Amino acid sequence: MTAQIKRAAGISGLIRRVRLTGAAAAAAAFSALIIVGPPGHAQAATNSYDQITGSGSTDSSVSVPWTQGLLDSSNKPITTDTTDPASNSARAAGSGPLSFMYSDFKNLVLTVSQTQDITQQGITVSWTGGEPTIGGGQANFLQLMECYGNADTGPDPEDCEFGSAESLASNSAQSLLGDRTGYECIAGAVPSTTSPPAALNGLPATYGCDTGEPGNASPPHVAPNAQTGQFTIPFVPVTNPGSPAYGATAESDYYNQFTSDEIQRAVTSSDGTGQVQFETLTSTGAPGLGCGAVGSTNQPQGCWLVVVPRGQYEPNGYKVAGDLGPGAFLDSSPLSASNWAQRIQIHLGFAPVQVFCPIGTQERETVGTQIVARAVQSWQLALNKQANCSKVYGFSAVPEATSTQELSATGSGIGLAFTTIPIGSEAARDASSGSSGGSLDLPPLVYAPVAVSALAFGFNINQANGQVITPVKLTPELLGRSLTQVYLTDLPDYYPAVAGNPGPTWSGGNPVNLSADPQFTALNPEITPYTLFSTPLAPLLTEDHSALNQSVWQWVQSDQATDTWLDSTTDTAQKLTVDPDYEALQLGKAPAADSFPRAYSGCLDLGLSAGTAPKEELKCSLDLLPYANSYQTAAQSVLTAANSSAYVWDPNSTAPDGTPGWWSKVGQEGVGSVFMWTLADTPDLAAYGLIDAQLCNDGGNDCVGPSQASLTTALDSATKNSAGLLQVNPASPGTGGYPLVEVTYAAVPTNQSAAALKDYAALINYAAGAGQTPGVAPGDLPPGYLPLPASLATQAKTVAGELLTDAAAKSGSAGSTKSSGTPTTAGQAAGAGSNTTSAGGTLAAGQATPAAGSSSSAYGINQPTAELATITTRSQPVGAVRWTLLAVALVGAVCAAGGTVLRSARVPRWLHRLRP
User: Fold this and answer.
1) In angstroms, what CA-CA distances link 578 with 463, 523, 585, 588?
2) For 261, how many CA atoms within 13 A lie in the half-sphere containing its CB?
3) Which residues of 563-593 are buried (b: 16+ CB within 10 A; e: fewer)?
4) What does the CA dihedral 383, 386, 389, 393 come to, rounded to 10 degrees?
5) CA distances to 147, 165, 656 from 288, in Å
6) Where are the alpha helices (DSSP H) in 96-197?
């Protein structure tokens, strides 16, 4: 009797685990990326970290061979023999009851790009010497997970988040591969490659029972009322160790397929190499692990990266076949004792999640552009600790208009805003959108340069031939097309899965998506076009109106042909028709747009056409191409391949109004069919390890990506605006210069108290001094930022010095305030001879607020260190706007964590993804 018939006959709990032998064809090997790591013992890898892109290895990188893969909390090999059946000594000697597994792992060398000062981010895990994956995922692959603990012996399976419900394996032939459940072997059985034992419940040896289970673990590896012959490994949360969670329902209180960072199958290429980006989660995103949470010892909770290599053998000695017949797939859990014994464990030192100061500490509040968020969050930790809890610096990322409102509002409690443009200048831009009204007074302001970064486009592309790791090339024309819904799959009413929905007539001759655009394929021949019915390949964008968005459009407009095409109907060379709804916006004309509209007005309602669904079930542009909350959440979504596009009609889903049928979201894109990209800032792209694009001229030449050299060249080309702030012209960044470079300034009103001026001067002095040291430790300048040139650092310190002078003068005059409208020496220094906006200047009421349709709330920056600095240290009255910002930031953090989708090789449902 076949194994499938036996399952159907009497084991109802295993129905969902029936082998679907055709599933393996959906997975594919990652492309080669050779990381040199000599065998012998764990050691620090060579520091090859790129400050701007975040690629390469940091000083804390670790390279470890499997033969020495059990590391202690200092990441040194455990030299003493343990009860582990595959200890380092057993691996090195090739002995022990599980030695039949060793041949598949003996040459494996794993490298982790960063192991210290970890936050919620992406770290690169690469390897050499692996056995090539068979059949796209039948055998020979790696499984990765995050676990908690600081013990030198390493974590137990109970300490790891793995086995999320409805993940890869529950939808594939390998149903227990992504589970915490397995089969016991018959009593007294031992592993055998010639006569592997069967399971206790009668299932044949092909199902990979484990002779080491259930063992004597505490808590026990047997669920209450478990099916005979099955064991379940509980998850024991660090926050509630006395209540182990057995089974998917209980585990879902701590993690699920949307919040886990587990990778259930990372494949190895034909040359034995592989690479994945692993997202590390802190206690905010994974409270059951508690990584980075500061305990009674004032030290952050450490955690582990555990990698379980899987070869061709099941724990009972059964060797899977290299074909698609019965028993061709590994099917057992990596948490099962014998598989767990093969693990590589690497300790991760986390940066502290919460601040070192108690509730009630005085807070100096700051707001500003999201592109400075990661730098400020790093500086916060150092400054807050350095202040010995006498004060705390808070930060919320907000739109430009909100910075203007906060600095101009009396009693707002916010005395510094980080900005790339003069405070209040967004009003003139908003005025072009029809805003009008009364006036808004601005205080006298000074500007200190504190950070240099850039906007960039980050990609995550994984196809049947592997992971794309070379920069994607873009031209102004390609970007202009991607931003204006000209490709078929970017149109909600293009739905060829159902007859009669071919999209609008004007789009008929256009490419199906960006990857199939002839110009794109010519520039990027390593990317195979997705030519079948597919989800959109448009970039993730934010909804706000900003000068940052405007600079992107200025680069698009730098090409005359693209400029003309945006305002016409057809590309005469490519015969590609512009979307008429975007043509009406005249995006090729100056001034450049400051937002990314979803202008196409067509919608699709399959239910309505059949007369069964109400009007509100339309799928329109915002459903198909949703906006991201921030650069950070966008980069995180791309890393995890979490596609929130509503694309497939699911008649079994329930609509919000309770009627049957609704548009389901694509969800996590699986290995072999990933294509996601986003506009974000270089610090967020570097943090999550995305591949940056190179920006080329329209002929595909002179391509430049973000780098230390290209950002420096562009900065050298910058000119001062009327307020003295440096601006890079995207149309002329200098030869070899990257066009989307931004300088962030700290804008400080001088009509503040002496105490406030001193505190803000201290922040600027730190930012321009020690805060410009590149690194990943708290207080360092994070990856993605270019260290300030000496001239800008001097300028910032001059401004800080003038603030201190002003503070001293105020203290000497019993707290009197400098009169409005009097320019300060600091202001002149900040403007390099030009005074900044002075008090008494006015803005039309409404002009300092975002134009209609833009976001008016704080960005959802999901960085726990900054959130707790601003949320848990309240001690002074603040305005309503500040409370709103704090609430939105907190909600954004929760949503961002909840939106994290595991990056496993899920086999997608049939309509979610039909790509070659």
Assistant:
1) 29, 21, 11, 12
2) 30
3) bebbeeeebeebebbbbebbbeeebbeeebb
4) -10
5) 10, 16, 31
6) none
Question: pLDDT tens for residues 171-217?
Answer: 445 568 889 999 999 989 999 999 999 999 899 999 899 999 998 88
Judged by average pLDDT, the poorest of 9-13, 188-192, 550-554 is 9-13
Token readout for 324 is 């698609």
Mean pLDDT of 464-480: 89
Which DSSP symbol is given to 205?
A: G
Contact 860, 633 (CB under 8 A): yes
Print the SS3 string covering 423-454: CCCHHHHHHCCCCCCCEEECCCEEEEEEEEEE
d(CA 320, CA 307): 21
Cβ(83)–Cβ(136) below 8 Å: no
Q: Which pLDDT tens digit goes with each residue over 351-400? A: 888 655 666 677 899 999 999 999 999 998 888 878 777 778 889 999 99
Query: Measured between alpha carbons, how far is residue 426 from residues 421, 429, 499, 831 in Å?
Result: 8, 5, 47, 18
Question: How much of the chain, in percent, has pLDDT values that exceed 70?
Answer: 76
Task: Report residue 46: phi and psi, to 5°.
Answer: -65, 135
Tell me the CA end-to-end span of the chain in Å, nearest whole number.
36
What does pTM read for this prediction? Answer: 0.77
Instruction: Round to whole Å and give the CA distance between 59 and 47.
Output: 5
Angle (CA) 425-431-437 rounded to 5° is 100
Tell me if residue 622 falls in helix, strand or coil.
Answer: helix
Phi, psi of 763 (to 5 degrees): -65, -45
SS (H, E, C) 849-860: CCCCCCCCCCCC
Q: What is the C-alpha radius of gyration for the chain, rounded to an integer number of angstroms?
A: 29
Tokens of 760: 């803000």
* Range 767-798 burial, b when 16+ CB lie within 10 A, else e: bbeebbeebbbbbbbbbbbbbbeeebbebbbb
Which tokens in the block code for residue 123?
A: 């770290």
DSSP string spanning 331-390?
Answer: -S-TTSHHHHTT-EEEEEPBPPSS-SS-TT--EEEEEE-GGGHHHHHHHHHHHHHHTTTS
296-to-240, 299, 355, 356, 383 alpha-carbon distances in Å: 16, 8, 13, 11, 21
Helix (H, G, I), strand (E, B) or coil at 581: helix
Cα(216)–Cα(32) distance, integer angstroms: 41
pLDDT of residue 334: 96
Q: Which of 518, 584, 592 is nearest to 555 (CA)?
A: 592
Nearest-angstrom CA–CA distance, 130 and 140: 8
Q: Tell me the torsion sign for CA atoms 280, 284, 285, 287.
A: positive
Work out the angle at residue 853's Cα, subtended by the Cα atoms of residues 848 and 859, and round it to the nearest 5 degrees.
Answer: 70
Please give the Cα distance from 607 to 686 (Å, whole number).
Answer: 43
- Count Cβ atoms within 10 A of the Cβ of residue 68 and give its class: 0-12 exposed, 13-18 middle, 19 or more buried: buried
Q: Which of 429, 412, 411, 408 is nearest to 420 (CA)?
A: 429
DSSP state of 293: -
- Amino acid of residue 462: N
Secondary structure percentages of the chain, helix, strand, coil, to 5: 25, 20, 55
Determine the residue type at 133.
Answer: T
- Dump strand ranges (E) for 129-180: 141-148, 160-161
The answer to whether 424 touches 843, Cβ cutoff 8 Å, is: yes
List phi, psi (to 5°) of 6. Answer: -60, -40
* Per-residue CA distances from 81 to 42, 88, 184 (Å): 17, 7, 26
